[in-house]
């Protein structure tokens, strides 16, 4: 654990943090299957419908093509130390993610990663989920009451796999830990040659599951931010609650970025 003073988000610190289990399936529906939890790490600045759709696409694909049973899904927003262009504060991004999954029965938002002031590698974030699910909780029960170890896997777009295949961008030991120990479910994205990206990751190919989009969706947070800077509509690209939150807090406009840290966070309900 870092020696730095921990961050606080929405009144929660690492000392008071609790792993969210309200939407985690408590008992396997099919005991012949292996319980699987999907973890999406990213900026989510802002979260879009595609971020949500990849969970639903993965849910269907896993059910029809694997021996896993999805028992939960988690969004893990990156912390403020990431320093990426266009990155709203972790507090805003956590709030937007919570609004986006408000109606989901199985996708949760985990604050553990953004509660750290330092940047956390993806491998360490997946270790956190493995610890919470298998060491703290002992896994997921089957119908006999026996605990089964949960398989934790990364869920991401093909653009992430493309970065993993870029020389010297990821630490080799992190790649081996993520793809070798955990595995990844990758949803294809327009403009990404997934076969080319996978060519240099062949040693982990059996642990990388590629999900093809049946309905093409190429919305991205970068494009959403561009639309907002140009004062263009983002409706039906982003959940309505998230749009209202962005408007209430004046996020992603030049003026809003200057004033973001100067005032209190406004709730989505304060903006029509």
TrEMBL record:
One of its GO terms (biological process) is NAD+ biosynthetic process. Residues 39-225 form the Cytidyltransferase-like domain. It is an enzyme of class 2 (transferase). It is found in: Nucleus. One of its GO terms (cellular component) is nucleus. It catalyses: nicotinate beta-D-ribonucleotide + ATP + H(+) = deamido-NAD(+) + diphosphate; beta-nicotinamide D-ribonucleotide + ATP + H(+) = diphosphate + NAD(+). Pathway: Cofactor biosynthesis; NAD(+) biosynthesis; deamido-NAD(+) from nicotinate D-ribonucleotide: step 1/1; Cofactor biosynthesis; NAD(+) biosynthesis; NAD(+) from nicotinamide D-ribonucleotide: step 1/1. The keyword Methyltransferase does not apply. GO terms for molecular function: ATP binding; nicotinamide-nucleotide adenylyltransferase activity; nicotinate-nucleotide adenylyltransferase activity. Pfam families: CTP_transf_like. SUPFAM superfamilies: Nucleotidylyl transferase (SSF52374). InterPro entries: Cyt_trans-like, Euk_NMN_adenylyltrnsfrase, NadD/NMNAT, NMNAT_euk, Rossmann-like_a/b/a_fold. Gene3D superfamilies: HUPs (3.40.50.620). Its EC number is 2.7.7.1, 2.7.7.18. Keywords: ATP-binding, NAD, Nucleotide-binding, Nucleotidyltransferase, Nucleus, Phosphoprotein, Pyridine nucleotide biosynthesis, Transferase. Transmembrane segments: none annotated. Belongs to the eukaryotic NMN adenylyltransferase family. This is Nicotinamide-nucleotide adenylyltransferase.
